[in-house]
């Protein structure tokens, strides 16, 4: 059963828990959050949320410390276009 804590995303929690349940006997579920952990904590303070491994069984959350993910994605797409054009 999923425990809803303030930092849990109510939209993604059922999906994560269903995946964890399906593969519980095989391995852990890993959630990768591109943001720095401090940015996620800031969301929590402003009443928003982030995923916590405390809310799920067999689950690990990893923060990847990307400061500006949209800019990184745009840069990656530009580099990719260089190889296609």
Care to describe what's here?
The protein has 85 residues and is α+β, with helices and mostly antiparallel strands. 41% of the residues lie in helices and 12% in strands. It contains three helices and two strands. It has a two-stranded parallel ribbon with strand order 1-2. The chain is extended, with a radius of gyration of 16 Å. It starts with 12 loop residues before the first helix and ends with a helix. Residues 1-6 have low confidence and may be disordered.
Summary, kept brief:
This protein is of the alpha+beta class. It has helices spanning 13-22, 37-45, 69-84, and strands at 29-33, 59-63.
Name the beta content range.
5-15%
Number of strands: 2
CA distance, first residue to last residue: 50 Å
Q: In which range does the helix fraction lie?
A: 40-55%
What order do the helices and strands follow? HEHEH
């Amino acid at each position: 059963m999923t425990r809803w804590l303030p930092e849990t995303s109510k939209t993604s929690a059922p999906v994560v828990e269903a995946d964890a349940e399906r593969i519980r006997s095989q391995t852990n579920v890993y959630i990768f959050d591109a943001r720095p952990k401090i940015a996620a904590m800031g969301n929590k303070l402003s009443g928003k949320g982030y995923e916590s491994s405390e809310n799920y069984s067999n689950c690990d959350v990893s923060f990847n410390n990307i400061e500006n993910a949209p800019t990184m994605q745009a840069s990656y797409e530009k580099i990719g276009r260089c190889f296609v054009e």
